[in-house]
Amino acid sequence: MSTGIERQPEQLSADDLEALIGDRAIGRDDHMNAPAFVINPDEVQSVLSDLRERAGYDHLSCVTAQQYDDRYESIYHLKKYSDPTDEVSIVVPTTRNDPVSESAEPVFRTADWHEREAYDLVGIEYADHPDLRRILLPETWQGHPLSDDYDQTKPQVVTLSEHANPIQPDHEDAESDTMFLNIGPHHPATHGVLHVETVLDGETVVDVDPDIGYLHRCEEQMCQQGTYRHQIMPYPDRWDYVSSGLLNEWAYARAIEDMADIEVPEYAQVIRTMGAELCRIASHMLALGTFALDVYGEFTAIFMYTFRDREVVQDILEDLTGQRMMFNYFRVGGVAWDLPEPREEFIEKTRDFLDELPAKVDEYHDMVTSNEIFQTRCIDTGVIEPEVAKDYGCTGPVARASGIDYDLRRDDPYGYYENLEWDVVTREGCDNYARVLARMEEVEESAKIIEQCLDLLEDWPEDEREVQANVPRTLKPDADAETYRAVEAAKGELGIYMRSDGTDKPARFKIRSPCFSNLQVLPEMSEGEYVPDLIASLGSLDIVLGEVDR
């Protein structure tokens, strides 16, 4: 087991939840791993407030919108930061003729972007939402791409309009003036095609509006058109395309294996765990190098050093999977193949990397975290208080650096993590500096996990090296089966909601991106600070736009 703090909060039974919701529940629609209560669209804030304040469900992890033949539906997936296995779903149906539902944003700030996405792609409107406009598509777009009446052949004319300062009338006086500043989308510090609409009062940031949607990945729709067994698994590598391939694959694998009741062989779980932690190290190396480049323009040393070490990890992953980035190594029920032969050489190569890693981490501390310029730029900037982080649904190093002790590898165990010794890294700084330190410490914890996996794989009995379960050639989960499952990806909680219609393809496939939720908190981190602090704060979130836009 992990040596982190063991927490066993009291879980409410389905009957307790039903009593709490009372006559506001008009039905039950239980999911595979959570009780689900159907409520009227004008009771959303009331029910969610009670679940948060009286029952402790303080983590709105995902909002899923979908369309049926006779209705629209919003699903609010609720968890507890203290125990993510204690889950409940609130299902809010609306008519097709009048798809209007009460907004959850007054209860959970993270619902802001999630509901805007639901409105943009599916067409559900949310009353009392503070800013209900499209988030991934241009404002002039016609129709909603995930609705069943959307005409994909219809040409779209996207008009261009001048940018208006959104707060100029409220911040103009005789002694100060405001300026509208576009940061990105074509700027290396935006970590992809992110456009940050920024308003300055002098040199102080007074308003920030992240503008996303430039990639249009269409990943959810493509997964809905693919078969469970073979055609979906290649897509997850492309969500966070620079670092988290196997972690992304595991998110889908966990969801379908839960839905289809597939038990993965123990040996394959060890290989999965080792590969996932190698990807975590690669991700954090990239995060450190690009952050140093963002903060003080250090390319020749720090950036190249981190890529030097990341390349060693990529070499190991290439030996294991056959690919350097788009691995497609996990399979439903296990992994594609065993360790490469000769097995001893692969294990020795991986151990050599682990043996050299502590000295390299010390080197980074000498060059980066102890650097006076770096500390000045990062300490006490980009502060995210714990309650703000929870309100925005932050997870991963972003949340743990604000003192939130939340890690799905320990708190909702999967793979082989519960059988290994390692620690969950948390820090109390809440600032850009704390997030850097958290990732560097997590690299050391990942190394511990990999070392133990190598010991197990080396000594595993030859006749028990089973890499895949016996999975049917065609998977057809029961009609109307629904599940939401998540893994601890490098950037936080990466979750998948799936609904089956009884065929070999999902009727709904929803990706809960940690980058999408974490990016929402950027205005809270940046308002009242300076433009260079905004750049540092954005870098400290470690986002990848391929996962934000999906």
From TrEMBL:
<feature type="domain" description="NADH-quinone oxidoreductase subunit D">
    <location>
        <begin position="300"/>
        <end position="550"/>
    </location>
</feature>
<dbReference type="InterPro" id="IPR022885">
    <property type="entry name" value="NDH1_su_D/H"/>
</dbReference>
<dbReference type="InterPro" id="IPR001135">
    <property type="entry name" value="NADH_Q_OxRdtase_suD"/>
</dbReference>
<dbReference type="InterPro" id="IPR001268">
    <property type="entry name" value="NADH_UbQ_OxRdtase_30kDa_su"/>
</dbReference>
<comment type="similarity">
    <text>In the C-terminal section; belongs to the complex I 49 kDa subunit family.</text>
</comment>
<dbReference type="GO" id="GO:0051287">
    <property type="term" value="F:NAD binding"/>
</dbReference>
<dbReference type="GO" id="GO:0008137">
    <property type="term" value="F:NADH dehydrogenase (ubiquinone) activity"/>
</dbReference>
<dbReference type="GO" id="GO:0005886">
    <property type="term" value="C:plasma membrane"/>
</dbReference>
<dbReference type="InterPro" id="IPR020396">
    <property type="entry name" value="NADH_UbQ_OxRdtase_CS"/>
</dbReference>
<feature type="domain" description="NADH:ubiquinone oxidoreductase 30kDa subunit">
    <location>
        <begin position="38"/>
        <end position="155"/>
    </location>
</feature>
<dbReference type="Pfam" id="PF00346">
    <property type="entry name" value="Complex1_49kDa"/>
</dbReference>
<dbReference type="InterPro" id="IPR029014">
    <property type="entry name" value="NiFe-Hase_large"/>
</dbReference>
<keyword id="KW-0472">Membrane</keyword>
<keyword id="KW-0813">Transport</keyword>
<dbReference type="GO" id="GO:0016651">
    <property type="term" value="F:oxidoreductase activity, acting on NAD(P)H"/>
</dbReference>
<keyword id="KW-0511">Multifunctional enzyme</keyword>
<comment type="subunit">
    <text>NDH-1 is composed of 13 different subunits. Subunits NuoB, CD, E, F, and G constitute the peripheral sector of the complex.</text>
</comment>
<protein>
    <submittedName>
        <fullName>NAD(P)H-quinone oxidoreductase subunit H</fullName>
    </submittedName>
</protein>
<dbReference type="InterPro" id="IPR037232">
    <property type="entry name" value="NADH_quin_OxRdtase_su_C/D-like"/>
</dbReference>
<dbReference type="Pfam" id="PF00329">
    <property type="entry name" value="Complex1_30kDa"/>
</dbReference>
<keyword id="KW-1003">Cell membrane</keyword>
<dbReference type="GO" id="GO:0048038">
    <property type="term" value="F:quinone binding"/>
</dbReference>
<keyword id="KW-0520">NAD</keyword>
